[in-house]
Structure formats: structure tokens, C-alpha cells
Specification:
heterodimer, A: mainly alpha, MetI-like fold, 11 helices, B: mainly alpha, two-stranded antiparallel sheet
């Protein structure tokens, strides 16, 4: 917090704010504009649609080509997030609070996975999933999402867990609670805000994924929304389905904007907690 | 085993030496619990990453084309010879390095500016943060479609601003558009990481320097930057490795046409278009080696603190 003194400086920072907000929003508004354009208006590069229509939304939401993948995205994202947060909480608790050999190995492993090029896993996992019958199923996406959500979860949660007042757990133990009870009854409720933050970050990562989604699925029974947009068809074979794709892009962006509006502070805290300590 | 411990049990205040047995008993339970709590996470991470990486190395030594399932054969390192002598690999690597270097460098500068704006502003602080989180959170593919249409001649606002140009059809311009899309998407993340580092710079120091007559630029280069160095290096490491695996933006914007494919796009094409598991795995292993080299360079070369070492130290 620096003191902004002169009016001139205020104007300067104010216009800088305006530039940032405009740069962040213009591409999003462009997509919203496209999604409301009629097929004829799409060929007009102006920002305000010459003629408005709900047709693009009607088109994508009336067929299973987008609805089913949207349900897949939500279902797969929620299940993967739940599993990743539960497993990461257990590991992060151990990392933050317990002394045990192998802790640095765990942290090193999580770091390796966090920086891991996903494409390097696509080829072997594709073959493994084919032979296990996991290809083109929900678990076929949930399992890799959990694995990539875990490092993020362990880092974020262990940073949060270190801030929790530790004496309370000791008090619970003195009162006769086992370490496991102390974890479930005392620490878990205190850790809830950190877990919500982590859940949001992990869900956003699953929601955002494209590479695994197009690699491990082949039909709409498990394809997620970002992957499904590629398979949209235009009104005729030779037209690009610009309007429907823009509408789909807006639909999958809405949850993000809602998350960001409600949890802005938490997302910022979560993003920066794991990476920039010390 | 715990006889001596039992004799002193009950007294809360003990000399350290007397309590040693009891501590080690507790330490053993703590160790067991630690392993127990970490086990499920470790099992999932090993099963989904370590095992497939091992499997990829094995596959990379085989001739294995899904179209010719009878012709699977151990061929040693010849896949590596084939990939490393192929112009496609080197072109993809060149494109990846160019995109990584430019997008990370520009993102660093813009992220620093964004962090300053977020740090200095009293008015509309929450608004700026919320707005800048939207590019971070938005699905890359959705944003990429937006950029693609924006640069399509005849229908895109950016194309019409630049005289109906069609940048996505030429190599250099298409790479520039890809870099632009990357920068838009990742600057907020960089800005937030740097903002966290910026808030660690003591305000008193800035004021003292100001009193001593240091200009704003001097204060930035002599105080802010050196103090932020650890935060900057960690942010750079993350962004570089993330940028190196670029896939989504290229896949939507150009499909890798006109020599714009990254190494990830090349690996994907070899698996799903050429159906060649052997070559695909070889590319996977090579990408993994590249990423490992980048990480080692950062951590050993620049002295970047490996993230998480502070957790370890506790």
C-alpha cells in the first residue's frame, strides 16, 4: 500500500487500471458478441452485432453434442476435484505437521509432476487405458486429473495448513483424541477455507484441460466440453460453426467468471501461497 | 520395549534424555501416520506418472505402429536416431523455444507492470484483480477460438483493424498470434506471483531511498528488483516450463500448419494421426528430457529456490 498523493498520479494509476481491465475483457466481450450474431452478421467484423439472435445458444443446448460433454465436464471435474482434495489434504497434513522420512521425496515428486509435460504421458497412458478398458470412460479422465491435481493441492494445502493454530490439536490430544480424531474434528474444520481454495484451483485445472480430453476420449459419452467444440458442425458442410462455438465458449466461461467474482481473494491467496514463500 | 518410558510417563516436564525413548515411540507413531496419510496420493501419482514414463521409455525402444500390430519389434535406439535426424523435430523444437522465450520474456515485463498497477492502486484494486483473473481462469481453448475468429479476414475485429490481414496463414505472423494468445492468458498469473513478491519489499526502504534522492527507476532497479529476485525466478521457472508444453493454443489456432507446431503438437500428431506409438513415445521422452534440462538450468544455474524447499526445511 503506497500513498498515492498527487491528483496527477491518481489519474495515471486510474488510467492504468482502465487499460488492464479493457485488455482483460475485450477478447471475452468479442466472444460474447460473436455468440449473439446471426450467421449473416458473423461476416461483419464490428463489435456490436448488426442483428442479434439466441439461435446459437438454442442450437448448442438443444442437441446432445454439447449438452452431454457439458455434463461430462461438470461430473468429471467435480469427482476429480473431490478425490484430489481429500488425498492432497491427507498428504499436506503430513507434510505440514508430521516428521517422517521420505517427506522430501514426496515434495520432489509433487514438484516433478507439477512441471511435467503432459504430452509425455499421453502416448503411454493412451496405450495403458486402451488395454485396461479405461479409454473413453469417465475414470479414464478422472484418474489423470487427480494425479495432476495432487501436486497443486499438496502445495497449496500444506501452505494453508502451516497457518493453522497448532495448539488446538495438542489440546484435543490431551483431551484423549487420537491423532486421526484430532485431524478430522479439529484441524479439518479450520482447514476448510484452504480446502475450498484448493478445490477451486483444481476444478479450474480440470475444467481447462484439453490435451487429455481429446486424447483419451472418442465419443460424447466421455468427451468434455472444450474437446467437444472441435466437433461442432456448421449449418452446412462448408460453413464454419463460428456462432455455436462462440456460444459454447461463453457457456464454459460463465462458471469461471462466477468463481472469480465470488472467490477472487481466495484464488489469489491460493495461487500465490504455494509458489512464493520464503 | 517401552519400560523406561512408562516409568516416566505421566510427568509432562521431562529432561530430554530421559524422555528420549518415549519420544521415539511417539516419533514412530508419527512416522507411521505420515506414511499412511501420504500413501494414497503417492500411489496415484506413481501409477499415473512414474509408471507410464517408464512404459514410454520402453515403448520408445520398439517399432510399434498401431496400424501394423504384427510388426512390434525391439529396435534399440533407432527411434531416437529417426527423430533426432528428422527436420520435423528440430522445426518443432525451434518453434517451441521461440514461443517460450518471447512469451515468457514479454509476460515477465507485462506481469511486472500489472503487479505494480495492482500494488499501487488504492481505488479499484479488487476490480483490477477480478478482471485480470478472467484471462487466467478462462478455458484456453475458448480463448483460442476467440483469437482465431478475431484474426479471420472479413469477420474478425483485429484482422479488420490491420487491413484484413490473414496472419494465421503465414508462419511468422501465426507464431506471433500464438505468442499474443499465450501472453494474454498467462500475464495475470505472472502478475499475481510478482505481486506477492512485491508485497515483501519493505515500504520503509523505498521511502528512505526517496528521501535520499533516488529516482523511481533507481528505486526499482536497486531495491525492488534485487529483493524480488527469488519470486521472479520461481515465477519464471513455472512459466517457462508451462510455456514449453504449449499445445491448446496452437492446436486451435493453426493445427500446427505452416511449420507452427510445437513439440507437444508433434507428439500428438505422431500418436493420433500417424498412430506410431514407438516414435510418439520417443518424442515424449525427448520432451521430458528438455523439461528436465530447463529445470536443472534454472535451479543450478540461476540459483532458483526449488519450490517446496521451505516446506522441507520445517
Amino acid at each position: 500500500m503506497a500513498a498515492v498523493t498527487t491528483p496527477r498520479q491518481k489519474v495515471g494509476w486510474g488510467s492504468a487500471n482502465f487499460v488492464v481491465i479493457a485488455l482483460a475483457l475485450i477478447p471475452v466481450l468479442w466472444m460474447v458478441s460473436l455468440s449473439f450474431k446471426t450467421p449473416a452478421a458473423i461476416l461483419d467484423p464490428s463489435f456490436i452485432p448488426a442483428s442479434w439472435t439466441w439461435g446459437n445458444y438454442h442450437q448448442i443446448l438443444s442437441t446432445s453434442q454439447f449438452l452431454r460433454p457439458l455434463i461430462n465436464s461438470i461430473g468429471i471435474g467435480l469427482i476429480a476435484t473431490l478425490i484430489a482434495v481429500v488425498l492432497a489434504s491427507m498428504a499436506a497434513y503430513a507434510v505440514a505437521r508430521l516428521r517422517f522420512p521420505g517427506k522430501s521425496v514426496l515434495i520432489g515428486m509433487a514438484l516433478l509432476i507439477a512441471i511435467f509435460p503432459q504430452i509425455a504421458l499421453v502416448t503411454p497412458l493412451f496405450n495403458i487405458e486402451r488395454s485396461l478398458g479405461l479409454f473413453n470412460t469417465w475414470p479414464g479422465l478422472i484418474i489423470p486429473y487427480v494425479a495432476f491435481g495432487l501436486p497443486l493441492g499438496i502445495y497449496t494445502l500444506s501452505a494453508f495448513f502451516r497457518e493453522i493454530p497448532w495448539e488446538l490439536e495438542k489440546a484435543a490430544k490431551v483431551d484423549g483424541a487420537t491423532p486421526f480424531q484430532a485431524f478430522i474434528r479439529v484441524i479439518a474444520p479450520l482447514a476448510a477455507p484452504g480446502m475450498v481454495t484448493t478445490a477451486i484451483l483444481v476444478f479450474l485445472a480440470c475444467w481447462n484441460d484439453f490435451l487429455f480430453a481429446i486424447s483419451f476420449t472418442s465419443t460424447i459419452s466421455s468427451r468434455t466440453a472444450p474437446a467437444a467444440m472441435e466437433y461442432f458442425s456448421g449449418s452446412s458442410q462448408f460453413t464454419v460453426p463460428t456462432g455455436p462455438i462462440a456460444a459454447a465458449a461463453v457457456v464454459i466461461t460463465i462458471p469461471i467468471i462466477i468463481f472469480v467474482l465470488f472467490f477472487q481473494r481466495r484464488i489469489v491467496a491460493g495461487l500465490t501461497s504455494g509458489a512464493v514463500k520464503g | 520395549m517401552s519400560t523406561t518410558a512408562e516409568t516416566v510417563a505421566g510427568t509432562t516436564e521431562q529432561a530430554p534424555k530421559q524422555g528420549k525413548r518415549q519420544l521415539s515411540e511417539g516419533a514412530r507413531a508419527e512416522r507411521r501416520l505420515g506414511w499412511l496419510l501420504c500413501a494414497p496420493a503417492v500411489i496415484v501419482m506413481v501409477a499415473v506418472t512414474a509408471y507410464p514414463v517408464g512404459y514410454a521409455i520402453y515403448l520408445s525402444l520398439e517399432r510399434y505402429n498401431l496400424e501394423l500390430p504384427q510388426d512390434i519389434k525391439f529396435v534399440g535406439l533407432s527411434n531416437y536416431g529417426a527423430v533426432l535426424s528428422s527436420p520435423y523435430w528440430w522445426q518443432a523444437l525451434k518453434v517451441t523455444v521461440i514461443i517460450t522465450v518471447f512469451s515468457v520474456a514479454i509476460t515477465l515485463v507485462l506481469g511486472m507492470l500489472l503487479a505494480m498497477v495492482m500494488h499501487r492502486t488504492l481505488f479499484g484494486r479488487g476490480t483490477v484483480r477480478t478482471a485480470s483473473l478472467i484471462p487466467y481462469g478462462i478455458v484456453t481453448v475458448a480463448a483460442a477460438y476467440g483469437w482465431q475468429y478475431a484474426w479471420t479476414p472479413g469477420q474478425g475485429y483485429l484482422s479488420s483493424v490491420f487491413n484484413d490481414s490473414a496472419p494465421l496463414t503465414s508462419e511468422v505472423k501465426a507464431i506471433a498470434v500464438i505468442i499474443l494468445a499465450e501472453i494474454w492468458k498467462t500475464t495475470p498469473f505472472m502478475g499475481l506471483l510478482l505481486l506477492a513478491g512485491l508485497s515483501l519489499v519493505p515500504e520503509d526502504l523505498q521511502k528512505a531511498a526517496k528521501v535520499d534522492g533516488a529516482t523511481a527507476w533507481q528505486r526499482f532497479t536497486k531495491i525492488t528488483l534485487p529483493l524480488m529476485k527469488p519470486a521472479i525466478l520461481v515465477a519464471l521457472l513455472f512459466r517457462t516450463l508451462d510455456s514449453f508444453r504449449i499445445f491448446d493454443n496452437i492446436f486451435i489456432l493453426t493445427q500446427g500448419a505452416n511449420n507452427t507446431g510445437s513439440v507437444s503438437v508433434l507428439g500428438y500428431d505422431n500418436l493420433f494421426n500417424a498412430l506410431n506409438l514407438g516414435i510418439g513415445s520417443t518424442i515424449s521422452v525427448l520432451i521430458f528430457i528438455c523439461v528436465a534440462i530447463i529445470a536443472v538450468l534454472f535451479i543450478k544455474g540461476f540459483g532458483t529456490a526449488a519450490p517446496g524447499t521451505d516446506i522441507e526445511a520445517r
